[in-house]
Amino acid sequence: MRLVDSHCHLQADRFDADVDLVLGGARLAGVERILVPGWDPASCRAGIALVDLFPWLDASVGVHPHDAANVDDDSWQELARLALDERVVAIGETGLDYDRLHSPILAQLANLRRNLQLAAETGKPAILHCRSVEGGREAQDALLAELRAFGRQPPPVLIHSFSGPVDYAEAMLALGAAISFSGLVFRRGEEASADVARLVPRDRLLVETDSPFLSPPGAPRARNEPEWVAVTARWVADQRAVPAEVLGEGLVDTYDAIFPSDRRSAVLAVARRQSRAERA
Ligand SMILES: [Zn+2]
User: Fold this and answer.
1) How far is the centre of ligand 1, averaged over its atoms, from the C-alpha of 10 (Å)?
2) Alpha carbon of 50 to ligand 1 centroid (Å)
3) CA-CA distance, 165 to 162, in Å (whole number)?
4) How far does residue 253's CA lie from ligand 1's centre (Å)?
5) Dihedral sign, Cα of residue 163, residue 4, residue 122, residue 55
6) Sign of torsion, CA 92 169 248 253?
7) Tell me: the pLDDT tens digits for 12-55?
8) pTM of full prediction above 0.70
9) What is the distance between the alpha carbons of residues 201 and 230, in angstroms, rounded to a whole number?
10) Distance from the alpha carbon of residue 199 to the mean position of ligand 1, in angstroms
11) CA of 28 to the centre of ligand 1 (A)
């Protein structure tokens, strides 16, 4: 099965010692694309540095709601500059987290708007994290309101690690959003995700691990890794009643369409030529 991991924090310090082995395991499992999202200035720089080491990866730059209150204007200017870099295919991760509230809500909203504006300016999709307290939907509704405030031309967005009710997913899809599923779908309280997995159009459907977090069943609890995206992808294929191989082809096509990159295309073309030459 061909696979992508649209959200994988390989720059997290839990991967410092063996990121090359983790990527080898991902390749063996069929993972062909990985997006490494930043969450604050340092992790954004580190994600871009990983793309230099492993050019088939992609990076994104932005500020996570947890870090919303901790980024000064100079750092933001740096991120806005980095957003134009060809190694950077998306803005984020950003969004709203009303569950853990590591930053106050007003700071989260200001941060979200700044990230969405950057997505609108660059045309690169904003990767959106959105969590409410268990059983609630305040963050989802606030996120919808922020996107609707753009009027007819909201920036392109990807809802990462989907969490929320079906009508929220429908409203996001109506705004043009893409939706990515993670190991969160296996957690108690996330049962609506099964219905949502059936209703996302093929060309807006992605999967991810959110490594090192959100281990799906079978993955080590201490550290999720990109190869485990296979568990979530197979779950999505089951919900949609399509063969895993068919779903996998669609995931790669969708990744390339949502995160177009001449840089990555060139890197992958060289790798294909090399492997053909090795086989000959
Ligand atoms: Zn994340």
Assistant:
1) 10
2) 16
3) 10
4) 22
5) positive
6) negative
7) 999 999 999 999 999 999 999 999 999 999 999 999 999 999 99
8) yes
9) 20
10) 23
11) 23
